[in-house]
Amino acid sequence: KENGYRNIILSNHIPELPEIAESLGLMELVEICITSAKVGFEKPNPQIFRYALELTGHPEELWMVGDNIVADVGGAEAVGMKAILVRKP
Question: What is d(CA 19, CA 21) in angstroms, rounded to the nearest whole number?
């Protein structure tokens, strides 16, 4: 955030994730916490990614960073987002 990046959490399930992120102090680093429980669509459904795109207003600058090739990368790329797959070393 302090470097001008807008950080968003986009997660399947866990309806209480925004409260968990807040209690861990993560919301100081994150602007928005979106869960499939709130939106009604799970990754890789394009609708949850479109919802994130609508909230940011700058889809060309939005990157999805995730650990699931289908849900995170495939879902993001289906709506034209750039994506990075992170794997454990």
Answer: 5
Tell how strand 32-35 and strand 63-66 pair up: unpaired
Domains present along the chain, CATH in parentheses: 8-85 (3.40.50.1000)
pTM, entire model: 0.88
* pLDDT on residue 2: 75
CA of 75: how far to CAs of 24, 41, 58, 63, in Å?
27, 11, 18, 12
Report the 10 Å Cβ neighbour count for 66: 21
pLDDT means per 10 residues, the chain with 89 residues, are: 83 94 94 94 97 83 93 95 93
CA separation for the pair 7, 29 (Å, rounded): 7
